[in-house]
Amino acid sequence: MKAMRKFELFDYFPNCNSPSFDWDAHNRYFDSRNVIFHAKTKAAEYPEHWGCLSVKTVISGVENFFIEREKFALTKDKYLILNHGQHYGSQVYAESEVESFTINYTEEFVALALQALLTNEQVLIDTPDLDADNALEFIQHFHDHDGIITPALRRIYSLSQQFQANYALIEEAYFDLLKALLAKQTGIQTQIQKTPGLKNTTRQELFRRLVRGKEFIESNFDANISLNDMAQVSCLSIYHFLESFNQVFGCTPYQYLIRVRLKHAKQMLECKDISVQEVCQSVGYDDVSSFSKLYKKTFGISPSKVNLKLNY
């Protein structure tokens, strides 16, 4: 009997609206195989469904995810970690193709890898707080690309371009990414310790709520969102949210909103043939003069001069 392959590559978006589509069979497939998902589309929509441990990125464009009834945008400067058993929906609607890339893990692979990692002396020294029961139970979903996870993702992306030829190497790369996820989790646990609260369970829950507000800001920076909106998403009172956010992330929610808006404005000005007026409106500002002053104060150059440099 031919052995079942442990790794598979999906290079298309399955059509869940087809009468023949079977969600149970689809979930069983992902529960039994480590699937690399790498596909392009202009339009795709998936209702809330079960998911395995996964790390999701977009190489280009924006993919929207719906987690606990809230909408969050995944852009190319971030990656998304979803826990095993997390229910979520996703959606792509764009004028240009969105290139989506995801690494999916089976429970079996994770269990065997953790068994090896949790008995490795060097790993235990580097990550002394590892707990086998919740070692990969992530509270924070969205993360900026970094020197921990991103290199491992890029390696799998590169290997998957010749999937059959690199099949043996892909298993090694999967293991390396899982090890990186453990290191990332240790850093998050350190951040949780900064969160106010006497009990660890209280700190974890408060951190979870603050992260929800932070991710809401990142996904809705172009809208007229208020402190009350952020606090409501976080299920906290305004002043509790304000004080705790500042304590954990080192800035106020509004200061963080400004950072996110200006980061996106800078990317737009440097990468697109677009006017300052259009950029201003695209990142949630109405007054070009105020936007330009804020931009210059932050980056040391006015947005109009960025345009002139690019068009010179």
* Spans where pLDDT lies below 50 across 5 or more residues: none
Q: State the CATH superfamily name of the largest domain.
A: Jelly Rolls
Mean pLDDT: 87
| Principal-axis shape | globular
- Structural class assignment: alpha+beta
- H/E element string? EHEEEEEEHHEHHHHHHHHH
What distance lies between the first and last C-alpha atoms, to the nearest angstrom? 65 Å
Share in β-strands: 15-25%
At CATH level 3, the topology of the largest domain is: Jelly Rolls
Instruction: State the helicity in percent bands.
Output: 40-55%
How many strands appear in the DSSP assignment?
Answer: 8
How big is the Rg? 21 Å
Number of helices: 12
Structural account:
With 312 residues, the chain is of the alpha+beta class. The protein folds into four domains: 98 residues, Jelly Rolls (Sandwich), CATH 2.60.120.10; 86 residues, no CATH class; 51 residues; 56 residues, Orthogonal Bundle (Arc Repressor Mutant, subunit A), CATH 1.10.10. β4 and β5 form a beta hairpin. α6 packs across α7 and α7 crosses α8. The model has no long low-confidence stretch (mean pLDDT 87).
